[in-house]
Amino acid sequence: MSNDTNYKLKKLLKELESKRGRHTELISLYIPKGYSLNEIMTLLSNEISLTQNVKSKTVRKNVTDALTKIMQHLKTYKKTPENGLAIFCGNVSEQEGKTDIELWAVEPPEPLGIKLYWCDQKFELQPLRDMVKEKDVYGLVVLDANEATIGILKGKQIQVKKHLKSIVPGKFIKGGQSQMRFQRVREGLLNDWLKTVAENVKKFLSDTKGIIIGGGGPVKDNFYNKHYLPTELEKKVIGIKDVGYTDEHGLQELLNRSEDLLQEAAVSKEKKILKKFFDNLNTDSGMVVYGLDAVIDALQKGAVETILISEDLDYFEGEFICECGNSFKKIVKNENIKCPKCGSNMKLIGKEDIIDAIEEIVKNYGTEVIIISRTTSEGEQFYNIGGIGAILRYKI
Predict the structure, then answer these.
(1) Listed residue (299, 319, 317) closest to 308, CA to CA
(2) CA dihedral angle for residue 177, residue 183, residue 184, residue 188, rounded to 10 degrees
(3) Options 1.10.10.60, 3.40.50.300, 3.30.420.60, 2.60.40.10; which CATH number does 137-266 get?
(4) Can you give the pTM of this predicted structure?
(5) Distances in whole angstroms, Cα of residue 143 to Cα of each of 16, 44, 170, 240, 256
(6) Where are the beta strands (DSSP E) in 166-281?
(7) Which tens digit of pLDDT belongs to each residue from 22-63?
(8) 269-392: which CATH architecture?
(9) Distance CA 66, CA 218 (A)
């Protein structure tokens, strides 16, 4: 999922999470990929019939109206969209006795595998929440001198890719000179064993974003520190943890102990770009600007390499018109805009998300747009200086 798509879905989820029905009258409908819309229409018709049994006249009417609105919307589709469809509809009026039936339709960025009809005081959003979670694939390796298990982590699911058993004997036997020979043989077998583990790591974990190594003794540290892994995989290692098991249970233990590493990895790109931004800002290099007007000015001069926008930024692009005939589009924070010609209050007739507005501008300049979260101290600091900035190609 692209950075932009992820941002838009998060923003929609935030809006839907804020909606509450005064009664059980908010409908969540998930239509899976490839499912027949005719069957969904039949389901909704049956639900309208069942709704007639609801005692409350107000609730009965609101639910019926919501179901009818969903059916009317579905008629605009010839078939179910490629990844399925999620529809949310119901009376979201905050005042008792007043009706405000709103509908949101989402074509998800990933295939929906669930069919669901649900009526409640809030929308059921978990299937979409799962789509905005971190889905990068990480490699997990747990090992000691006796066994090793290699797995991959996607989301919260661990898949075991390989379990290996070694022929390395225990550390000690009785006897003087034979003890020394035994140790040399053991070290040779251990060396061969770690090479075998490394070969399997390369086979199964080369395409992962990062690798975490775990084990109960020095073997795991030697595996990394003595460079058994190829350089390209060594660079992917994001941490080494002590765990008590080296089987499938060890992978789960490693995951439980590595939440800090995974969280850090998830925001590493964001922290890196923010470090570059603040380093330039603090040294007054002239290679960054911040604030909406400064960013737009630099962008229109073709000087912007990367635009950074906080995901909680409350700007939007509004289309305004005045009674005097003056009209324009402008990125603003609120709807109260005075006409620069006559001084009258202008009417908002159109509204677009700031990300969409910025992306429309940058497509002519080859500029990258990065959405910045507030989950890190750097992200919060960026939000507090205005939430929009740019790294420049050259000084202006």
Answers:
(1) 299
(2) 160
(3) 3.30.420.60
(4) 0.54
(5) 45, 54, 15, 11, 16
(6) 210-215, 237-242
(7) 889 999 999 999 999 999 999 999 999 999 998 999 999 999
(8) 2-Layer Sandwich (3.30)
(9) 63
